[in-house]
Each structure stands twice: as C-alpha cells, then as structure tokens.
Design goal:
Blueprint lengths: L10 H5 L2 H14 L4 H16 L4 H20 L1
Helix pairs in contact: 2-3, 3-4
Length: 76
C-alpha cells in the first residue's frame, strides 16, 4: 500500500469522525508513518482523549497510555 496515494483528510474532518480517526491513528502508530493524515488524525485523537464523549474518550486515552508505556519501557 502506498501512503502517498491516500486522499488527505482535513484535521476538521478527523475531529468529526472518531471511528475513522481511531483506525487511521492506530495504523499510523503501527506503521510509523508521518503523513499529513497521520498528523491530522493525531491532533483529532488528542482532542477525543481530552474532550470525547463517553466510550470515545476512553478509547483514545487508552492509545496514549499504551504509547506512554512503550516509551517508558524503552527509556528504562
């Protein structure tokens, strides 16, 4: 799959689509991709983790908790 061929969605779009944001952001983390889509999904994911509706907020908080644990494991 070539990431350069994906349609770039706006940050505003991601902020209106939590399920798609979750899918894109978790894939970006898995692949280590640094595209515009990944950046916009990351920004939206941060928003959902801070201000999301119940269920959505916890799902995004869990992503950031897992990433923090991975970083801590590497730095210890």
């Amino acid at each position: 799959m070539l990431s350069g061929c994906k349609e770039t969605k706006s940050e505003a779009w991601y902020k209106q689509h939590p399920d798609e944001t979750y899918a894109v952001y978790t894939q970006c983390l898995k692949d280590g991709e640094a595209s515009d889509n990944c950046e916009f999904a990351h920004r939206a994911a941060l928003m959902f983790a801070q201000e999301g509706q119940p269920g959505v907020k916890e799902k995004f908080e869990a992503i950031f908790q897992q990433e923090a644990e991975k970083r801590n494991a590497v730095t210890q």
